[in-house]
Design a protein that fits this description.
Blueprint: H1 3-24, H2 30-35, H3 42-53, H4 56-69, H5 74-98, H6 103-110, H7 114-146, H8 151-201, H9 206-210, H10 220-230, H11 243-258, H12 261-264, H13 273-309, H14 319-325, E1 330-332, E2 356-360, E3 366-368, E4 379-381, H15 385-393, H16 398-436, H17 442-465, H18 474-495, H19 501-524, H20 547-565, H21 571-580, H22 586-591
Length: 592
């Protein structure tokens, strides 16, 4: 069967499974809708957390980033994995013991202020909408390539799927759907990785294959280093970032991860604090399966891509090359007229976004209309195709190629659902229930939550159809925003009894404002001029991806200074902080 038929079959089966779970797990109360009734088992919650965690960024983009950045891409592995450890050990048990549904709920009660709650809602919405824009766009791209539909239609289909299991089941429906999505995405990621590892090195375990030898007895990484240097790229295993920037990016991703509201809320869905710890450990194990395999997938994909396209005639290119050309994610322009693809170090495009003419070149290639003739590189490759196209590049069976499409959709949809629920609960619970209409009935609150999620899905879909200029940086921006705003407020709220509402509000406002300014100024160039400012103008040599670290530090300093210059929190708030920091059962143990 063709790739398209296999894709329709696998996507149809998995989507039917998601719909069935949504109907079975229909939410009947606000507790079901917000935290799945608080009765999810640690195993199910661990799998759901892993699916929530491993978004399209993890499934599609991370291996692509590492493929092109090489050693420098390790910051994403360290930052995202370390961030989850930080969240599991430093925040999750305490937040679970506090017993609130949402992050703004914790901040509002801990800082005894509806203003603090509202600022937290705004921060959560900014983080969630920024993150979800990339997920919906990813859904559109996968549908466009593998199901041969327009990207806009692909986004609409994705919106509809998320709407069904989020609208009906809320957190309950999303949780059990994410269990299924974890199984789909991890299977879809690992099967081609195992196939290609065996094909290239003879090892079934990708992690071992990455360090093994290939047919000529050369180590695979040495071979890739040689391929890179021959084409003018830096060695794959060498880094180019400064030590400070590596630290800043890793730290920003770590603390941003620990401040992501859609992941934090997962720890409210289990019955006990110890179950939160168990599910955190299980989730880390499940996440590690993909995260330890991603570097190997990156090496396999990069090696296969270079050997397939470099200095080869365009007419010899396999079918996958021309198919991906039609998506605009790969393109070639024959600058020297020899009919060969010259893939060397240097930008093929003179702008960040690829633009193509409607005409094709004399060899049938899709011509890049804004070629930067200052370099001899003729090939544009979007890093996001590396995982999706990898099975095709390696000439794997059609069902494996289709499986990757189903896995990419599962990764994007699972995270999109979690983010949209955060948006919904922030509006219905933290704004309407807690501030605007405190006497609203449970039925009315549930209806408000469902209406909120409907509106949020429509807005998210529009972001996917009409992506903002900074969508390419959406992941770094979302993590930076979380690091700059939510993480310090939560951490200081748990570990600093003297922290008051004035300090928390000032810190969040300053942190998120500073992060927004820097990302817009140095990543998108929307402030002052049209182009982003060059690296030579970065503050303290810090890239936009790492600036969340500085914004977080500023937030913490402002919070502490302001809190010490203003009245201390009430006695009952200090007692709450003391209580959530004492492990469950500690009092009984001391008494006996």
């Amino acid at each position: 069967m063709s790739i398209q038929v296999w894709t329709w079959i696998l996507v149809g089966v998995t989507f039917s499974l998601y719909f069935g779970i949504a109907i079975w797990a229909r939410a009947g109360s606000t507790k079901d809708f917000y935290v799945a009734g608080g009765g999810v088992s640690p195993l199910a919650n661990g799998m759901a957390t892993a699916a929530d965690w491993m978004s399209a960024a993890s499934f599609i983009s991370m291996a692509g980033i590492i493929s092109f950045a090489g050693y420098d891409g390790s910051v994403y592995l360290m930052g995202w994995t370390g961030g989850y450890v930080l969240l599991a050990l430093l925040l999750a048990p305490y937040l679970r013991k506090f017993g609130k549904f949402t992050v703004p709920d914790f901040i509002g009660d801990r800082y005894y202020s509806n203003i603090a709650r509202t600022v937290a809602v705004i921060c959560a919405l900014l983080v969630s909408f920024t993150y979800v824009a990339g997920q919906m766009r990813g859904v559109g791209i996968v549908f466009s390539q593998f199901l041969q539909v327009d990207i806009t239609l692909g986004v609409i289909i994705g919106m509809t799927v998320v709407l069904v299991f989020a609208f009906l089941g809320g957190m309950k429906g999303i949780t059990y759907t994410q269990v299924a999505q974890f199984c789909v995405l991890i299977f879809a990621f690992m099967v081609p990785a195992i196939f290609i590892s065996m094909q290239m090195t003879g090892y079934a375990i990708p992690q071992l294959g990455m360090g093994a030898t290939v047919e000529d007895g050369t180590f695979l990484l040495d071979k890739l280093d040689a391929l890179h240097t021959d084409l003018g790229f830096k060695e794959y295993t060498e880094g180019s970032k400064s030590t400070w920037d590596v630290f800043a990016i890793t730290m920003a991703l770590m603390v941003g991860t620990a401040g992501l509201p859609h992941v934090i809320v997962r720890f409210f869905t289990v019955p006990k604090v110890k179950d939160a710890r168990k599910s955190a450990g299980l989730a880390l194990l499940f996440i590690a399966i993909l995260y330890t395999s991603a570097p190997a997938v990156s090496v396999f994909a990069r090696t296969n891509l270079i050997e397939t396209v470099s200095d080869k005639n365009y007419t010899e290119m396999p079918e996958w090359f021309t198919k991906w050309e039609d998506t605009g994610l790969i393109a070639w322009s024959d600058k020297n007229g020899d009919g060969k693809i010259q893939y060397v170090n240097g930008k093929a495009l003179s702008s960040k976004k690829p633009e193509y003419t409607e005409k094709r070149g004399i060899h049938g290639e899709r011509v890049i209309s804004n070629v930067n003739n200052e370099t001899s590189n003729e090939l544009y490759v979007d890093r996001d195709i590396m995982v999706l196209a990898n099975p095709e590049i390696a000439n794997l069976p059609n069902w494996v190629i289709a499986l990757v499409a189903a896995g990419g959709l599962a990764a994007a949809l699972s995270t999109a659902a979690g983010l949209l629920l955060v948006i919904s609960t922030s509006i219905s619970h933290d704004l309407i229930k807690k501030q605007i209409k405190p006497n609203i009935s449970e039925k009315g609150e549930l209806m408000a939550a469902r209406i909120s999620i409907l509106v949020a899905i429509i807005v998210a879909g529009l972001f996917g159809i009409y992506p903002p200029g900074f969508v390419a940086a959406v992941v770094a921006l979302a993590f930076g925003l979380a690091a700059a705003s939510i993480f310090p407020a939560i951490t200081l709220g748990i570990f600093d009894k003297r922290m008051n509402k004035e300090g928390a509000i000032a810190g969040m406002v300053v942190g998120i404002t500073l992060m927004l300014f820097y990302m817009i100024r140095y990543k998108t160039g929307l402030i002052g001029i049209f182009d982003p400012r060059p690296a030579s103008e970065w503050w303290f040599g810090t890239s936009p991806e790492g600036f969340g670290t500085i914004a977080m530090i500023v937030n913490i300093v402002v919070s502490i200074v302001v809190s010490r210059l203003t009245p201390p929190p009430p006695k009952e708030v200090k007692e709450i902080v003391e209580n959530i920091r004492v492990p469950s059962g500690a009092g009984e143990a001391i008494e006996h």
